[in-house]
Amino acid sequence: MKPKVFITRQIPDNGVELLEKYYDVEVWGEEKEPPREVLLEKVKEVDALVTLLSDKIDRELLEGAPKLRIIAQYAVGYDNIDVKEATKRGIYVTNTPDVLTDATADLAFALLLGVARRLVEADEFVRSGEWKKRGVAWHPLMYLGYDVYGKTIGIIGFGRIGQAMAKRAKGFGMRILYWNRTRKEKAEKEIGAEFVDLETLLKESDFVSLHVPLNEETSGLIGEQELKMMKPTAILINTARGKVVDTKALIKALKEGWIAGAGLDVFEEEPYYNEELFKLSNVVLAPHIGSATYGAREAMAELVARNLIAFAKGEVPPTLVNRDVLSVRKPGF
Q1: What is the pLDDT of residue 276?
Q2: Which parts are annotated binding residues for NADP(+)?
Q3: Which residues bind NADP(+) per the record (predicted)?
Q4: Which domains, ranges and CATH numbers included, belong to the chain?
Q5: H-type helices in the chain, by residue range?
Q6: Interatomic CA distance for residues 44 and 84, integer angstroms
Q7: What is the C-alpha separation between 37 and 172, in angstroms, rounded?
Q8: Distance CA 156, CA 108 (A)
Q9: pLDDT score, position 122
Q10: Is the pTM higher than 0.85?
Q11: Out of 9, 89, 168, 241, which one is annotated catalytic?
Q12: Quick one: pLDDT at residue 287?
């Protein structure tokens, strides 16, 4: 019999088709994630699990999954998974890095441009009929935004996506500053970026873009103190994790003019609604669509399948997160 895999959300067909050669596949067919009680029931009988960021894979769930041997996360981040507990139990954890890098960097730069040039406000102005009502075809002071070309961008987190963002900024002739836990000298030379401390980055940047994982060090990284360091004309972009930014402090900063605007693709909780934040005109919002291109999502599905297939063959999955698990259990069922 084939090992069983439960996929907690519909993913592109290419990934499912690859898996069906090696696994007995069950896909949750509803748009919303499976309720907690359903997920706890499903894991009792499965050998493998395909998860998303909104799936809470904690100790309780792992304790109730005696056959589970591998968790394939359909995302780069995996802060929803108790990796330490999984490793202790000999459960492999994989993710999908690289394949969504360009799509996410594209969206981050789109948010940057959208906020800087007030595109959402301008779109609403036209669609609502207000432009026609005013009867003014063009005015020198209408919807003034901020220049992007030749300005300074500060990138917090200089991994794959941070570096991809820097390459896009380079095409706009921008000065590129970055802060990272460790210096990336090879990358900074190739791209032409400057390694600086966080305070310098915040004070000198016209745009600050976040590309760090969520962990104890980065939770609340951008709070009131950091926002007050930024220029009043600066714009903050977050396509990393919502909890990296203190939302209350951000709302205050946007209302009181500590910064000029923000572009957000991620939030403290998802799905999310905050009336105070969402009423502000100087913020552009997206529902966590950083990797939402046909190409990126299909590539993610393929990588999920490759990880699971490698494990089924007794091979080390190509993007294994918890390599310490190799000393606990060999790959395979």
Answers
A1: 98
A2: 158-161, 239-241, 288-290
A3: 158-161, 239-241, 288-290
A4: 4-99+294-328 (3.40.50.720), 119-281 (3.40.50.720)
A5: 13-19, 36-42, 59-63, 83-88, 101-116, 119-127, 130-134, 160-171, 185-191, 198-204, 224-229, 247-256, 275-278, 294-312
A6: 20
A7: 49
A8: 13
A9: 97
A10: yes
A11: 241
A12: 97
